[in-house]
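Check out one such.
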Amino acid sequence: MTINATDLFERYMYDNKYDDVIDYTFPSFEVTDIALGQTIEAPLTNTDKLYIAGNVSAHNGRGDGNVACTLRRVTSDKSWHEFDCSIGSTPSFGGKTYRKLSTHTFVNMSGKFIPCLVFCLDFTCFLQEHCNFPRTGQNQV
C-alpha cells in the first residue's frame, strides 16, 4: 500500500508570515497504490489438493485482478502433477510435473497455454542436482 502524505509535511515549508493567507485545514492522505492477495489450500483427499488464489491491485485509479485455481495430485513420494487455470486480464491454462530421479536429482517440467489475440505457448524443463546442502545446480532446457 502506498500512501501520499505530502499534505502532512508540506504545511511546515511556509513561513509564519503566510499564516493569514493559508487556511488551516486538517492534512489529507491519499491512497495511490494498493494490492491485496489471498491463497487457500483445500485438501480433497490424501493425494489431491486444491489451491485457490486471488489478487487485486489498484494504481492511480486503475484496477487489475486475477483468480487462479490449481489442482495438485501426488502420485507417489517421488512425483506429483498439477493443472492450473487462471482468469484475469487474460485467461491461461497450464500444467506442471515433478519427478525425483535419484536421491539428489530431480526434474521439473511445466507448460502454459495463453489464449489471447495471438495464442501463446510456453514450455520449461529443469533438471536439478543437489550439489551440497546450501547450493542446488540446475540446467534449463
User: Anything to note?
Assistant: The mean pLDDT is 83. The chain has one domain: 40-140.
